[in-house]
Structures are given as structure tokens and as C-alpha cells.
Amino acid sequence: MSEELLHIGKWTFRSRLILGTGRHRTNDDLVASLEASGAEVVTVAIRRLDLDNPGQRTILDFIDTSRYTVLPNTAGCRTADEALTVARLARSLGLPHWVKLEVIPDAKYLLPDPIGTVDAARALIEDGFTVLPYIHADPVLASGSRRWAAQR
User: Could you give the residue numbers annotated as active site?
Assistant: First the structure.
């Protein structure tokens, strides 16, 4: 069995596991989960950070960025414009210029908006982001987006 590395944009990882930060009871549980998992990438939903209280610690304060690469997430964004704002906010916080892009207009069914996602992905790619879109298992949508990105 070979030890192939995972390459995403300019990043290279040994582990293919990407761990989310949601659903942990405490920040200590999150840190323990990260350490036990062997993951090198951790997603953070930027909309869930309380940025209105600068003195208050956020989940970002508990992630050792010398060990883990933060993958900002646009979870909770209902439109392409909202997702663009959240991704750019993550960049302004000094986070890496890549994003797990989610555009989900219906919180009940959590189905991604394919057109809104492609529109947001195009704008973010033009803005220098590496984009990991959350889309349906749609090879036509995925291949069209990939071709468009390759032309850039």
C-alpha cells in the first residue's frame, strides 16, 4: 500500500480525514477529537463565530494552527452573495485562502443550490480562493465547474 499524499490547491496533507468543529460538547472535547483523529484539516463555520465580542475566545483560539490547517466553511449561507461575504471575512481574519463552499437556501432539507454554488465558486476563484464546493453528486455540474476553474 502506497502512502499517497493529498494535494488540494497549494496544500499537501498525509491524512485524507477532514474534521468538522460542530457537535463537540466542549472546546476541550474538540481538541481531544482532533488529536485522536490524525486529521490535519479542520473545518470552521465562520458564521458561527461570535466576532461581535473581541474579548471573547472563539473556536479558532482552541485550534493549534501549527498542527492543523483551518478550512473556513460557509455553512448557514443561503445565497451566493452571503457565501462570498463569509469567505472574504474568513480571509480578513487571516485564515487560509480556501473555503468549503456551501450555499443552502433551505435549512430544512439542506440541499445545496447548484447555480448559486457555481456562481459563488467562480467569483471566489477569480478572487484567489481554492474552492471545495458542497454540491450534489452531479458529474455535469462538477466537470463544468472544473473546466471553468482550469481556464483561469
Answer: 100
